[in-house]
Specification:
Low-confidence stretches of chain B: none
Helix content of chain A: 40-55%
Largest sheet of chain B: 8 strands, parallel
Strand content of chain B: 15-25%
Shape of chain A: globular
CATH class of chain B: Alpha Beta
CATH architecture of chain B: 3-Layer(aba) Sandwich
Low-confidence stretches of chain A: none
Largest interface: A-B, 32 and 24 residues
Order of helices and strands of chain B: EHEHEHEHHEHEHEHEH
Number of helices of chain A: 13
CATH superfamily of chain B: P-loop containing nucleotide triphosphate hydrolases
Distance between the termini of chain A: 61 Å
Oligomer: heterodimer
CATH architecture of the largest domain in chain A: 3-Layer(aba) Sandwich
Helix content of chain B: 25-40%
Number of domains of chain A: 2
Radius of gyration of chain B: 16 Å
CATH topology of chain B: Rossmann fold
Number of strands of chain B: 8
CATH class of the largest domain in chain A: Alpha Beta
Chain lengths: ~350, ~240
């Protein structure tokens, strides 16, 4: 006896929060910043309904360390913020990567550097995919493009984080956090009850002592941990590369875009088709691990590759690495906190097409 | 739509204040109403949303100005911020008795709190405080929760609620059943709060069907102005 699934109209930020709760998250620690405030707002209202804990910390530094503490006990825990706050959390993230504890961090990206503005942006791409703070770590990073996908990725992230004992970041953006779309929600689930052999919980009458730690003072110990992490990232790359793609099978222009610019690009592709230019879109969903393979494959076909991203050019580095010299890579940066438009992208598709691609 | 076709409680000149939970659709209704009114009389649209600094009337102020609606919103850098900044022209706009004024406030009681600044002047102009409801929002399908929120909004604004606008919708995927679900919620609140449903909203394209299905309540057909660019260009 299951009720017919019913869509509700949610903001992206609300969907992130509800998705996390449905995925078993029961602890939220955070600090306010626009444009993600609906996440803590929603958590403050809804965490008590599921017997969870919502706490507004005194700063982002405190929040991420509360996440570290809760995560060390094996609890499903998250925080959310935007660029400036995520920057403050980098040290804590690095400690969690070093200590191998899972958690979810949602970054609803605004423009930077510095205070920048509260407009929409993707300019935390480098901080997310290279970051997770200092040291030899990365951050598993997913980027949704719809409110439903934001819900789904937050729902699933705890399973991914626990599988690898590693933080997962959702790199969202202001426009996606603020816009409203229909979402099909799942029943709110509990975290799996499996024993986590690493989690702290007291010795329980003689159990071996467990230690959560990121200090490896002996050179051999640190080198071993670095190698273990490197192998983990190879495994993550084998198992978690995600993308979607659509368009012509013999494209003249390959478009690579994630999140909101990818949605604008889809509409732009219809316009390009109307003016006789064949296009294909590869939309990375996992930013680390990055979907090099499909991009490389389509770049062999398309003489032009156009990257549309909400920064002065960050993901374009990864695209260039994937493409090599097979296709001529151009960038359409979307700046200032504004949304790009299908018209602007269609114009750029036409321009790179007419400019000429890689030498035959 | 011509302002003569508007529901009785929504005809110019006058002052209408749109309140309601976050994301219930206040802003799109405010824009549609102001554009209707501008055809009959000089019209201001006051953008007093200090809660959520996105998808606000000020984003399309020049487009609205071309059609006779003057948007009142903080100008310059404060207008693009998330600070609690209010437009200084509000008092004089409320005082202009022959001018129409649509006021769009932020969601929840927190958003309605700004109205206390002008409570006496708004009372003097018999401002119509309307509650916009959408049962397809999270928690929006509970009559009791919606009624309590409505009472909290009225208390925070210091102005009595005059009516309900039923705005059942699923954003870009709204169908007639969603609009009628909204009306059902509106009717339940009508009974609970003892204020009338002044209109049921639906996308303009569904207006005739909605009129046929809901003959006993005014139908307000909406055009959407704040949709993201890819939806704008395909619709």
């Amino acid at each position: 006896m299951s009720a017919e699934p019913k869509a509700i109209l949610m903001k992206g930020n609300e969907a992130a929060a509800e998705g996390a709760i449905a995925g078993g998250c029961r602890y939220f620690f955070g600090y306010p910043i626009t444009p993600q405030n609906e996440i803590p707002h929603y958590m403050a209202e809804h965490m008590p309904q599921v017997g969870g804990v919502y706490l507004q910390a005194e700063s982002e530094v405190a929040a991420i360390n509360m996440v570290f503490g809760a995560a060390s006990t094996g609890a499903r825990v998250m925080t959310s913020s935007s660029g400036p706050g995520i920057a403050l959390m980098q040290e804590g993230l690095s400690y969690m990567i070093g200590a191998r504890v899972p958690c979810l961090v949602v970054n609803v990206c605004r423009g930077g550097p510095g205070l920048g503005n509260i407009g929409t942006s993707q300019s935390d791409y480098w901080m997310a995919t290279r970051g997770g703070g200092h040291g030899d770590g990365r951050c598993i990073t997913f980027a949704p493009a719809t409110v439903q996908e934001q819900y789904d990725l937050c729902y699933e992230s705890f399973d991914v984080a626990e599988r690898y004992r590693h933080p997962v970041m959702i790199l969202s953006e202001a426009a996606l956090g603020q816009m409203m779309e229909p979402v099909f929600v799942r029943p709110r689930g509990e975290a799996p009850k499996d024993e986590k052999p690493w989690a702290l919980g007291g010795r329980r009458g003689g159990r071996n002592r467990r230690v959560i730690n990121s200090l490896y003072a002996q050179p051999d110990d640190l080198a071993r941990e670095n190698r273990v992490l490197a192998e983990l990232y190879e495994q993550v790359t084998r198992e978690q590369v995600r993308w979607s793609e659509k368009g012509d099978d013999d494209p003249e222009v390959l478009i690579v875009a994630f999140g909101i610019p990818a949605r604008c690009s889809e509409t732009a592709m219809e316009r390009a088709a109307a003016s006789g230019v064949r296009t294909r879109l590869v939309r990375p969903i996992s930013l680390f691990p990055f979907p090099h393979e499909p991009i490389r494959r389509w770049a062999k076909v398309a003489p032009h590759t156009l990257v549309v991203e909400g920064s002065i050019g960050q993901m374009v580095d990864d695209v260039r690495m994937a493409v090599g010299d097979q296709s001529k890579v151009s960038l359409l940066p979307v700046l200032g906190g504004l949304l790009t438009t299908p018209e602007e992208i269609a114009h750029e598709i036409q321009r790179v097409y007419e400019e000429g691609g890689r030498a035959p | 739509m011509p302002s003569d076709d508007l529901p009785a409680g929504l005809r110019p000149p006058g002052v209408v204040i749109l309140t309601g939970p976050f994301g219930s659709g206040k802003t799109e209704i405010a824009i549609n109403l102001a554009l209707c009114w501008a055809e009959a009389s000089p019209t201001y649209l006051a953008d007093l949303d200090v809660i959520t600094p996105y998808f606000r009337p000020r984003d399309i102020a020049s487009q609205l100005a071309d059609r006779g609606v003057r948007v009142l919103a903080p100008s310059g850098p404060p207008g693009a911020s998330d600070g609690p900044v209010l437009p200084r022209e509000m008092s004089s706009a409320i005082a202009e008795a022959d001018t129409s004024l649509v006021i769009d406030v932020g969601g929840h009681p927190e958003g309605a709190g700004v109205l206390t600044h002008w409570r006496e002047a708004l009372s003097a102009r018999n401002a119509n405080v309307l509650l916009v409801v959408n049962p397809r929002r999270p928690g929006g399908d509970s009559v009791e929760a919606s009624a309590q929120l409505a009472e909290a909004i009225g208390a925070r604004a210091g102005l009595p609620l005059a009516g309900v606008i039923a705005n059942g919708n699923l954003g870009p995927q709204t169908t007639l059943p969603h609009a009628l679900e909204g009306l059902q919620m509106g009717r339940a609140l009508e009974a609970r709060l003892r204020v009338p449903v002044v209109a049921v909203c639906c996308p303009l394209a569904l207006r005739d069907e909605c009129v046929a299905q809901a003959p006993d309540v005014p139908v307000f057909g909406l055009t959407f102005y704040l949709r993201p660019p890819w939806q704008r260009s395909v619709s």
